[in-house]
């Protein structure tokens, strides 16, 4: 993808660090700014409390939890990273996509997962981020293996 002259943001949510690692690698390659999406009410640090408590309830009730927002107006291309949570993106990423104006912007998704893949996250991002063009996601198990840097470069080169 030709990013020349584009204003770029990498925005990601990460609970246990995998998506943060991948976000930082993408940011190092594409430049621009980086922003960590954080819910106003942090998730518990305990896995079961987060997974089977808060996150499951948010998923079941379709809750978009309030986040500390970023001003995305000046960006043309926004890389949006999320862990797979209950077969979709993490709820704070839903908030980020739904409450900002993505008209005429390009979203480039990236997803880290625990074995389930990216599910329909690309399509769901397109639904939430009204007006955005959503490109093909980079999808990786955990934080990837020793090929991760090459895999990211190959994905970036193949984006249209
Ligand atoms: C609440 C919660 C739900 C999850 N649901 C899924 C899932 O549906 N499918 C999957 O493959 N992995 C699932 N995982 C595993 C994460 O997607 C995976 O560990 C991811 O890389 C974590 O990213 P992070 O370290 O940036 O938070 C879940 C993890 C959590 C905490």
Summarize the structure.
This protein is of the alpha/beta class. It contains five helices and nine strands; from the N terminus they run E-H-E-E-H-E-E-E-H-E-H-E-E-H.
Number of folding domains? 1
The second-level CATH architecture is 3-Layer(aba) Sandwich
Give a quick account of the main beta sheet: strands, pairing sense, barrel closure: 7 strands, mixed
CATH topology: Rossmann fold
Number of strands: 9
What do you see in this structure?
The mean pLDDT is 97. The protein has one domain: 3-Layer(aba) Sandwich (Rossmann fold). The chain has 160 residues and is α/β, with parallel strands linked by helices. Helix 1 packs across helix 5. Helices cover 35% and strands 24% of the residues. Strand 7, helix 4 and strand 8 form a beta-alpha-beta unit.
Helices and strands, with pairings:
Layout: E1 8-12, H1 18-30, E2 33-36, E3 38-39, H2 47-61, E4 67-68, E5 77-85, E6 88-89, H3 91-99, E7 106-113, H4 121-128, E8 133-134, E9 138-141, H5 148-158
Parallel strand pairs: 1-2, 1-5, 5-7, 7-8, 7-9
Antiparallel strand pairs: 3-4, 5-6
The structure holds flavin mononucleotide.
Features:
alpha/beta; Rossmann fold; two-stranded antiparallel sheet; 5 helices; 9 strands; 35% helix
């Amino acid at each position: 993808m030709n990013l020349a002259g584009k204003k770029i943001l990498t925005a990601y949510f990460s609970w246990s660090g995998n998506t943060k690692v991948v976000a930082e690698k993408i940011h190092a390659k594409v430049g621009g700014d980086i922003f960590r999406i954080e819910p106003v009410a942090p998730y518990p640090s305990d896995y079961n409390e987060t997974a089977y408590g808060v996150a499951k309830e948010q998923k079941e009730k379709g809750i978009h939890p309030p986040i500390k927002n970023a001003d995305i107006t000046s960006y043309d291309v926004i890389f949006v990273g999320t862990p797979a949570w209950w077969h979709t993106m993490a709820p704070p990423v839903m908030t980020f996509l739904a409450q900002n104006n993505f008209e005429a912007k390009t979203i480039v998704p990236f997803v880290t997962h625990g074995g389930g893949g990216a599910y329909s996250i690309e399509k769901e991002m397109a639904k939430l981020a009204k007006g955005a063009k959503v490109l093909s996601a980079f999808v990786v198990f955990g934080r990837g293996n020793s090929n991760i840097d090459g895999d990211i470069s190959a994905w970036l080169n193949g984006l249209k």
